[in-house]
């Protein structure tokens, strides 16, 4: 039977990236490079997550899907060729390009893949914002006019954000992440992006990065005006609280909070991914347990039966770790990391009781 799985992150250099994955979460980044993405759970060709520990250490997620599809995902009408989700942490030191992912019909016509996603803001600078959809009243003709003038950003709806804000982005919604923003991203397993506008900046080669104007115009939903953030209300969840975020045919996402000592029973028969926003989480199943710190993710296979997620006692985890990074103290790899970036450089995350934990729970739709 498959155990709870953790994976080695896959780091992606991006011109807009930074080093906060290291300074906040203790991840061991390649030295001297701007890292914009950490692919925490991936089954992309050439970027297949590798199990980090346990009896399946060294196996790829793709191999496990091929060998144990029903144990991993539960009973499905048809086994997918690839794991259906891609989970990322995004560190946007600078703003990303204005872009769009094609809906299914357009993707088939253009030779790409559809991509619906959700963003959960985990850290945000004082001027952090997201770009999503169009300003009300912007027409395709006006959009194309501003595109030709190099001022198409004026057509985008801009949303100031703080930690805890979340946004759903169906395929076809134009969007971008603003500077000084860190996000947990849940998405379809796709890597098709059509770049609309890149702020007239140079890429790593010193030349402007390629735009995909014809593909973008074919993919944008020009009736998508001023989308709102997802609801912030949470309800009692026995124990702690639960905040439903997305219930889509592709995936479902909730934010859960547990107070110190709180434990949540997770019923078996359905695959779950847990990603820790703040605090520390102990995940137990089949007689084994894994501790995740902030920025850590695990996959609970459908075959695990009942699992338990419990708020871990961070004070015990930190004990005798004086002088080490608070991030590395909780890092499963145990690797030392530079001292944490001072939290006041970001807006503070929503308050938790001492040693409480907040985490995303992701399941297939």
Helix content estimate: 10-25%
**Termini distance?**
24 Å
| Main sheet strand line-up | 2-3-7-14-9-12
Q: CATH topology of the largest domain, what is it called?
A: Jelly Rolls
The helix-and-strand class reads mainly beta
What do you see in this structure?
With 365 residues, the chain is mainly β. The protein folds into 2 domains: 7-219, Jelly Rolls, CATH 2.60.120.10; 235-364, Sandwich (Jelly Rolls). The chain is 14% helix and 36% strand. It has 8 helices and 25 strands. Strand 16 and strand 17 (241-247) form a beta hairpin. The chain is globular, with a radius of gyration of 20 Å. The two termini are 24 Å apart.
List the helices and strands and how they pair.
Elements: E1 7-8, E2 10-18, H1 20-23, E3 35-41, E4 43-44, E5 47-48, E6 50-51, H2 61-67, H3 69-73, E7 85-92, E8 98-100, H4 104-110, E9 117-124, E10 129-134, H5 140-149, E11 156-160, E12 166-169, E13 175-177, E14 181-188, E15 194-197, H6 213-219, E16 235-236, E17 241-247, E18 251-258, E19 263-266, E20 272-278, E21 280-285, E22 288-293, E23 297-300, E24 307-311, H7 314-318, H8 326-330, E25 357-364
Antiparallel strand pairs: 1-6, 2-3, 3-7, 4-5, 7-14, 8-15, 9-12, 9-14, 10-11, 10-13, 16-17, 17-18, 18-25, 19-24, 20-23, 20-25, 21-22, 21-24
């Amino acid at each position: 039977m498959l155990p709870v799985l953790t994976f080695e992150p896959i780091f992606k250099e991006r011109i807009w990236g930074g080093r906060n994955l290291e300074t906040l979460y203790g991840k061991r980044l390649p030295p001297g490079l701007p890292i914009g993405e950490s692919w925490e759970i991936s089954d992309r060709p050439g970027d297949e997550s590798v199990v980090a520990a346990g009896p399946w250490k060294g196996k790829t997620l793709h191999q496990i899907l091929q060998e144990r599809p029903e144990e991993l995902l539960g009973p499905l009408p048809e086994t997918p060729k690839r794991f259906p989700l891609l989970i990322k942490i995004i560190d946007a030191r600078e703003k990303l390009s204005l872009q769009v992912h094609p809906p299914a019909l357009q993707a088939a016509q253009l030779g790409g893949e559809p991509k619906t996603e959700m963003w959960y803001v985990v850290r945000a600078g004082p001027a952090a914002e997201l770009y999503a959809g169009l300003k009300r009243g912007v027409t395709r003709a006006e959009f194309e006019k501003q595109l030709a003038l190099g001022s198409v950003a004026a057509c985008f709806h801009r949303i100031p954000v703080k930690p805890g804000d979340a946004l759903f982005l169906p395929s076809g919604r134009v969007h971008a992440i603003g500077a000084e923003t860190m996000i947990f991203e849940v998405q379809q397993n796709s890597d098709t992006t059509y770049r609309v506008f890149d702020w007239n900046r140079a890429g790593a080669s010193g030349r402007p990065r390629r735009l995909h104007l014809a593909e973008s115009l074919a993919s944008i939903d020009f009736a998508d005006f001023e989308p709102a953030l997802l609801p912030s209300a949470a309800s009692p969840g026995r124990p702690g609280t639960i905040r439903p975020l997305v219930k889509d045919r592709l995936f479902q996402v909730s934010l859960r909070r547990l107070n110190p000592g709180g434990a949540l029973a997770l019923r078996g028969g359905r695959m779950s991914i847990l990603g820790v926003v703040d605090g520390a989480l102990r995940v137990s199943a089949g007689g084994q347990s894994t501790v995740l710190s902030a920025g850590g993710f695990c996959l609970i296979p459908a075959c695990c039966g009942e699992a338990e997620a419990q708020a871990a006692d961070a004070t015990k985890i930190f004990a005798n770790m004086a002088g080490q990074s608070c991030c590395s103290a909780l890092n499963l790899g145990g690797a030392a990391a530079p001292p944490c970036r001072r939290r006041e450089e970001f807006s503070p995350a929503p308050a938790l009781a001492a040693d409480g934990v907040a985490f995303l729970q992701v399941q297939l739709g």
